[in-house]
Amino acid sequence: MRMANVGGRAAISTGGAWIDLEAASEGRFSADPQAAYGQVADIRDWVGDALPADAPEATGELGVPVPMPRQLIAIGLNYREHAIESNLAIPEHPVVFTKFQSSLVGPGATVTLPSDGVDWEVELVVVIGKEGHQIPAAQAWDHVAGLTVGQDLSWREVQGRGPAPQFAMGKSYPGFSPLGPYVVTVDEFADKDDLAISCALDGEVLQEGRTSDLIFPVADLIARLSEALTLYPGDLIYTGTPKGVGMGREPKRFLVPGELVSSIEGIGDLSITLVGKAD
């Protein structure tokens, strides 16, 4: 099942048209896209048993599929080759930072580059579906509502400002957390731990990898994060990026205006348009 924000309302699809969740369920489920992620199991059961054949379709544009997460957590250096290209040691523990909700944008967004030093980082994003604290890794996937595509755009100069790095600030400018185009529930993946992941600018491939190369896979991340945190339905975890970022190249390379398309196997393409800062 796919879950989306269509015209500001919760929508679902099993492969055809987008269905307005509240209208089709006659009010059983909310129109709030954020609320749906805590009810995934119930929604899926209802779709299998009671979705009417003439269910009303959702209308409008796709928006941020998870628009109001309580927590937006991100992981750095979580692919081995990315750590190597960054000239940093392979981490023994997850490198955890936050991004701010105001940086979220959905598919088709136009994002202004505030500098000529903004980097790209395609990421698999986990959407939490069940509250939990100190979750065992063996049970971690039971707490996942679904998976989606994200970009962790990064203004490297701001990220590196001292005396300590400013990850949250450098990665939270407007539009720096593209997300979408929709969320795919975990049951749709043949192997949820091994998905092709890539991004391209105007058709030129910038990154290619597989999520099986994660140093801390999804279940391990959830277990480690929940040692300290309580995770809530609709929380987001940006799980890290594979090798190929601009800062790791020689000479360094950064984003320019164009179409940036981020792709993950079994989910789809997240496309945004990058524009330069107006004079």
TrEMBL record:
**UniProt similarity note:** Belongs to the FAH family.
Cite a single GO MF annotation: hydrolase activity
The protein here is known as Putative fumarylacetoacetate hydrolase
Q: Which Pfam families match?
A: FAA_hydrolase
Q: Which keywords, in A-to-Z order, does the entry hold?
A: Hydrolase, Metal-binding
Any GO BP: carboxylic acid metabolic process
Q: Which residues form the Fumarylacetoacetase-like C-terminal domain?
A: 72-274
